[in-house]
Amino acid sequence: MNELQFKRHRRLRSNATIRAMVRETHVKVEDFIYPIFVVEGENIKNPIPSMPGVEQLSLDQLKTEMDEVVALGIKSVLLFGIPLVKDAVGSEAYHDHGIVQEATRLIKEGYPEVMVIADTCLCEYTDHGHCGVIEEGKILNDPSLDLLARTAVSQAKAGADIIAPSNMMDGFVAAIRKGLDEAGFEDIPIMSYAVKYASAFYGPFRDAAGSAPQFGDRKSYQMDPANRLEALREAQSDMEEGADFIIVKPSLSYLDIMRDVKNEFNVPVVAYNVSGEYSMVKAAAQNGWIDEKTIVLEILTSMKRAGADLIMTYHAKDAARWLAE
């Protein structure tokens, strides 16, 4: 009888030690960027019902949060601000004493080794909830660019290490790069939300940031989830305009896009593991339907495998604890 000829791939899976030896993808705590929602006021620690474990924090509560973040080994945070007063042009976004600016100063004074990434957008600050200037119901592109550049410069003055513009206006990276350079911040990198889809996965974030549009939607400036090649065009434009990092948002349903971007561009790629992705896992875990630790680490591994160099994730603190085990 002829002997069967086949490959024995299971040889490299036979025990935990050999599996670790040949593991191709690794998730490290240094990969994580932890988003934090800061609000004006005092003694505020508001749980966000649609995002279990995530809270809105006033500045006097931020130190406790940062102590935990640093103790866990997380090196980077992403700041979102919720102001007391909103107006048509989001003027609190570029106020030198705005909430993100003050939170940045607090963190850089107390935790200088932590990288502070400032979300640079207007939607949390406008009374209409859109990411730009409105005229007769239309989101105007070019007039919005000046306000975004002003916001970035104000954040850099406050000590932000990286500017992360998320508005998806055409030319936003070029405008911000020009503004930063003219203000003497030519060394501040731009982490561009270059590939940002008009996704249903953002729902819980809009609760957290109070940024739901008061009319219409954001489909005229965020991307159609059905499109792939458009993502490469967007990323190419931002690279040419001076982006130093490229963010793909959301991540879990867009791993193919992340791999495309990583294959095409020689810059760090950042996955944004967004609020809806986080909340689905949390809800299933609370119902006992899944093993949260195993699922989360598998999801984060999939993002690294797809090409992410860094991951913005609300799971960061939990994942850091699990990795430390």
UniProtKB/TrEMBL annotation:
<dbReference type="Pfam" id="PF00490">
    <property type="entry name" value="ALAD"/>
</dbReference>
<dbReference type="InterPro" id="IPR013785">
    <property type="entry name" value="Aldolase_TIM"/>
</dbReference>
<dbReference type="InterPro" id="IPR030656">
    <property type="entry name" value="ALAD_AS"/>
</dbReference>
<comment type="similarity">
    <text>Belongs to the ALAD family.</text>
</comment>
<keyword id="KW-0627">Porphyrin biosynthesis</keyword>
<comment type="function">
    <text>Catalyzes an early step in the biosynthesis of tetrapyrroles. Binds two molecules of 5-aminolevulinate per subunit, each at a distinct site, and catalyzes their condensation to form porphobilinogen.</text>
</comment>
<comment type="pathway">
    <text>Porphyrin-containing compound metabolism; protoporphyrin-IX biosynthesis; coproporphyrinogen-III from 5-aminolevulinate: step 1/4.</text>
</comment>
<dbReference type="GO" id="GO:0004655">
    <property type="term" value="F:porphobilinogen synthase activity"/>
</dbReference>
<comment type="subunit">
    <text>Homooctamer.</text>
</comment>
<dbReference type="InterPro" id="IPR001731">
    <property type="entry name" value="ALAD"/>
</dbReference>
<keyword id="KW-0456">Lyase</keyword>
<keyword id="KW-0350">Heme biosynthesis</keyword>
<protein>
    <recommendedName>
        <fullName>Delta-aminolevulinic acid dehydratase</fullName>
        <ecNumber>4.2.1.24</ecNumber>
    </recommendedName>
</protein>
